[in-house]
Design a protein that fits this description.
Layout lengths: L2 H11 L4 H8 L8 H8 L12 H15 L19 H11 L4 H9 L7 H7 L13 H19 L1
Helix pairs in contact: 1-8, 4-5, 5-8, 6-8
């Protein structure tokens, strides 16, 4: 999955404006202009498109966790590997933590976008790579999950 697609879907589903995005990047010392954000949100065939490195998406997701769930009092900020890759499964885990979603919440969010997973299929997505029951998350599922989170959060606000 391309990081720009995940970032775009997140900002759309959670209805983040430019100021909110800048606020989420600020704790990491990343100061993005409005134009830079617009370019990250473009698709690859649009002029001005800029590829978002994996580590920038990881920083965004970590800051999303801090913003919505809160920082652990004894937590030490872990350095981000600028050459590391982020998997779709990692995105699922980070979003689950950020919005404090339990298994039933995750299943409900997926159901809102017409996807039903069994408990075992769902737990396989959150296992560590290399575990015998680990299952890699595909691109469509991670994007649908992000859509489902947006819908779930909207229904909870109403």
């Amino acid at each position: 999955m391309r990081t720009n697609d995940i970032f775009r879907k997140l900002t759309q589903s959670l209805q983040f404006d430019t100021l909110k995005i800048q606020t989420l990047f600020a704790p990491a010392g990343i100061d993005l202009s409005e134009k830079e954000i617009v370019n990250l949100l473009k698709t690859d065939y649009q002029p001005g498109f800029e590829t978002m490195p994996d580590y920038i998406l990881l920083i965004f997701l970590n800051n999303l966790i801090d913003e919505y769930r809160g920082k652990k009092p004894d937590a030490v900020m872990e350095p981000v590997n600028k050459h590391g890759k982020i998997s779709n499964n990692d995105v699922l885990k980070k979003l689950r933590i950020a919005f404090n979603l339990h298994e039933q919440d995750v299943r409900e969010a997926l159901k809102l976008v017409t996807i039903e997973l069994t408990k075992s299929d769902l737990s396989a997505l959150f296992r560590k790579p290399g575990h015998e029951h680990y299952k890699a998350c595909d691109d469509e599922l991670v994007l649908d999950f992000i859509d489902g989170i947006g819908k779930l959060l909207q229904t909870r606000k109403a």
